[in-house]
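SAMPLE LOG
Freezer: B-3
Tube label: C17
Construct: single chain, 198 aa
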Amino acid sequence: MSEPTGLRARKKERTREAIGEAAASLFLEHGFDRVSVNDVAAAAEVSKPTLFRYFPTKEDLVLHRFADHQGEAARVVRDRPAGTGPMTALHRHFRDGLDRRDPVTGLSDQPGVVAFHRLVFATPSLAGRLVRYQLEDEQALADALGEDVQARVRAAQALAVQRVLARANWQRIADGRSARDVHPEAVADADEAFGRLR
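STRUCTURE (predicted):
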């Protein structure tokens, strides 16, 4: 008797989550470079080959959280309401993220999120791998904006603005301020930056 497809998919997702949680816990406690893939597999109670089926590289064990947002800017542009410009749609989406305290905006003061961002920004191999995700996002957004060089330029500018804003928000929180305290400043910065893009 075969397993229903839905059950199989849920089991795979639970395994992926267990591996990701085990990795995050170990990396945050001991540092990325001090934890091996074997350590993560043992903590998640899976084999090393199983781990690599879900996460092709050690860096992906951390950065899958960013990968979950892959192509988001392009989707926002493609799905925007008629009559709404691309930069306006991206601006609104970023502002909504600030209001929700979405970690991608840097405006989350949950200790685990702050520690996670610190881990990524302080580990050269993770920061380097993150650039690859950003370049893929840039290409997807450029494709959504058009087919010429100017579309690439606009995509690069929009994603650079989001990256700089998110990093500034995270730094303020890492320096000890609360998300609630930083929120008005983050909104004002986003409004000015996206206003310049438009």
